[in-house]
Recover the amino acids of this structure.
């Protein structure tokens, strides 16, 4: 009986912690969307205009952008910046227009 109470208490603590993390991420979503959009744009210019590697392009990021991951699709000349499971933006390099962001449909996860 005592072990069951301890297990129920631990389960409750874990559930509350997960809820707090979820609420924190909801509040940070607009900032993360802005950060990944900026990161994708900077990395696209660095990669396709500056002809540098993506690993080298991360050096151009501002402090606090360490959690943003970069990937590229060589076939479409697209760079994607993301914070896994939270925010993602892609920018495609056009030879005439330069780095063009994907169309953003607004806040995908409504926070009011």
């Amino acid at each position: 009986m005592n072990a069951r109470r301890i297990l129920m208490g631990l389960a409750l603590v874990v559930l509350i912690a997960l809820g707090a993390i979820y609420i924190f991420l909801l509040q940070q979503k607009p900032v993360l969307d802005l950060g990944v959009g900026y990161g994708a744009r900077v990395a696209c210019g660095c990669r396709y205009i500056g002809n540098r590697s993506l690993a080298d392009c991360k050096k151009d990021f501002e402090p606090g952008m360490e959690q943003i991951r970069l990937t590229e699709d060589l076939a479409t000349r697209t760079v994607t910046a993301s914070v896994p499971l939270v925010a993602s933006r892609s920018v495609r390099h056009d030879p005439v227009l330069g780095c063009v962001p994907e169309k953003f449909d607004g806040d995908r996860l409504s926070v009011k």
